[in-house]
Structures are given as C-alpha cells and as structure tokens.
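Each field is set out as follows.
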Amino acid sequence: MSELPEYSLDRVFDAPREMVWRAWTDPELLHRWYGPNVETVIHKFDLQPGGSWLNEMKMRGSSFFSKMVFQDVKQPEKLVWHHYSSTDSDWNTAANPMMPDWPSLLLTTVTFESKGDKTHVRLSQVPIDATDVEIACFTKAMAGMDNGWGGGYAIMDALFVELQEQG
C-alpha cells in the first residue's frame, strides 16, 4: 500500500497550553488519564529526543506493556514519538495479545496550539513499516479510536478543572 492511513483527533481543551502540555508530559498527571478505565503505571518517562516512556496498563488481572521513544520534543508546542504498541515486560517488541494484526509501530504526533485561554490539541498516528494486513487492521480500527482517546480526554477535562481550582 502506498498511501498510509492517518488517524487524527482534534480537540480544544478549556485550559491554557502550559497546563495541557503538563498533562501530557508530567507522569504524575499523565498516568491519571492515559488509558481510561485501567490502572496506568509509568515505569520510565525521559522527555527528550531518544528518551523512553515505558508504560504498563493493568486490566482484568493482567498487564499490557508498551514503549514510546521520543523523536521530537518542542515545549510546549509538539511531541513526536515512536509508539511500540506492544512489548513484553522487558520492553522488547512483542505481538499484541488483543489484536495480533495491529501494527507494532506507530508514529504519534501531538501538537498544542494556544487559542486564547484554551488549547487546540491535534493527535495523529500513522503506522510505520506495517504490512498490508496491519494497515488494514489499523484502518478498520480507526473508527473506534476516538472512544479510547475520548475517554482519556474526558478525564483530562476534569483534571484541568481540578488544577485550575488549585491555582
């Protein structure tokens, strides 16, 4: 396939850009919304190009591991990372146990743009080095990806209210 599918989600948050950036880059906040309805454990978060974000999601009595490697960090404008969708507990790439045809690697880009006292966030994900079967799986799943990200964003909305009340 020559044309890769791109998942994108645009959202305006009722919070200043620095606060939204912090929700994406402070592990103490990130674990609260990333992976809604599961326990998210961030084992490592090294926010610099080449740095890793090692993530564990605990659900239904088991753990699901993923690794992100930052490619570009421009505070507070942009984050770019390679998202290794599934790893073993030693952070080695592994087949996705829930979706065996899911691409093992995604390029994720998140941009942050001030809109007065609000922030426009654009999230984009594109498969990298994926087979035709993996691209087809990603394309089919794109329609439902808003639900997962949207669940996390709803938690973020409440988090921003809490942070703004704290001053």
The beta strands are 7-13, 39-45, 52-59, 62-74, 78-87, 105-115, 118-127. The longest helix spans residues 132-166.
